[in-house]
Amino acid sequence: MSKKLIYLNGKKSVEVQYGAEDAIVEVYIDGVAHQFDENNPNKLEYALATKRKKYSEFLNNQFENLIILTGAGSSVGIGKDIKIGEETKERKGRLLAELWDDVKEVISEETLHEFCKLVKYEDKFKNEGEDEQYVKNLEKLLSLANISKNYVEHIPVDGKQKIIIEDIIKKIEEVIKTNCTLKLPENAPHTLFIEKITKRKVTLPRAKIFTLNYDTLFEQAGRKKNFTIIDGFSFSHPRTFSGRNFELDIVSRNSSRVKEEDNFIQKVFHLYKPHGSVDWTNEENQIIQKDEPDKSLMIYPKDSKYESSYEQPYFEMMSRFQQNVRNENTLLICIGFSFNDKHIVTAIVEALEQNPGFQLMVVNKGIDNWSKSFNPIFEAAKIHNNIVLVDEVFEDFARYYPDLKSYNQEDAKKIILNINNSQHE
Questions:
Q1: Which of 267, 134, 272 is CA-nearest to residue 211?
Q2: In the beta sheet, which residues pair with residue 8?
Q3: How is residue 349 annotated by DSSP?
Q4: Which long-range contacts (CB under 8 A, 24 or more apart) does 108-114 make?
Q5: Which residues, including other chains, have CB under 8 Å from residue 350's CB and lie 6 or more apart?
Q6: What residues contact residue 14 under an 8 Å CB cut-off, 6+ apart?
Q7: What is the pLDDT of residues 295-346, one digit of tens each?
Q8: Is the pTM of this model over 0.85?
């Protein structure tokens, strides 16, 4: 039998124990086995409801500063199918391991195999009864390729095409960019999530979303519901980037004059993209936002992304993240983040160690000890009540995130006049 934690916050926890055929045989609440009566036979349902009640109670506290950090888990499986010529292709958010398969399809399995040999990518595994296969670690492959491109040359055997490392790197990056160019579906959780996190007292700082994803799902969700997005780009066209634009806010000027105070409007949030975006590009030494640029400004997955984060516009985004996690009374919610990005993890660990007013919530599919970099936070969550770990996918988290209706100011009701039908007809 195995146990699985689905909620952890110091001494507060929800844990399920599995028996034969993955059936749940016990549910432990705060370390104590729950005694079920005949009226409540569904143990999984009870465990999930208890978990959601616990994190809702935690989130019902009004934190002065609310920061959201999202990784691949907030985009995986989300998107619309697109039509290319006569063919309809699925275009949904994908994990790096899945992008490996996309690269193989584009450049061929044989070329990918030769490329791996050329750059000395040797990570392999073998299941019983199967041939040896490569570990699908696209980040490590690109890291080795970028190291090799300046001094390794492919000498093809007779009849084989020569592999140019730099050309393959460009093709892999193009595959990543293409598969991260997503369209927001009607049922995407981003819209609901934005609406909930922005329901705050007008006197509190704006909610801030930092997304490590290249896609524009949060931007599309914001525009869909008429939100104003403070993202570092000007409101004029072309939209040009400047860190000073993050200092802007939106107020109702007439109301401010009457009350002699700032009257901040609703439906505004900040958006930061530390790894770049599919719709950013550099033209004439200006960083601009543009639909379908030829060359996007993105930090592609590789070891050197830590160093790349010191270049603009990425440096501005990372600086803002570091500043924000140092503020008093701050809650950082990490959603679908793997904790494998050194520069991001370093800032979070520093905040946990140095900022007594900092609280962390991690929302991931699985919160047990699943990576070396995450292990210290997992262990700390067993002891400290300022760290909350939640086993939940983004879609469900957005659905069960508490809706603070007391801060909801609905849009003015629209007046629709039917002037098509004359009263004399």
A1: 272
A2: 13, 389
A3: H
A4: 111/161, 111/163, 111/168, 114/154, 114/160, 114/163
A5: 322, 325
A6: 5, 6, 7, 27, 28, 29, 47, 50, 51, 54
A7: 999 998 877 666 667 788 999 999 999 999 999 999 999 999 989 888 899 9
A8: yes
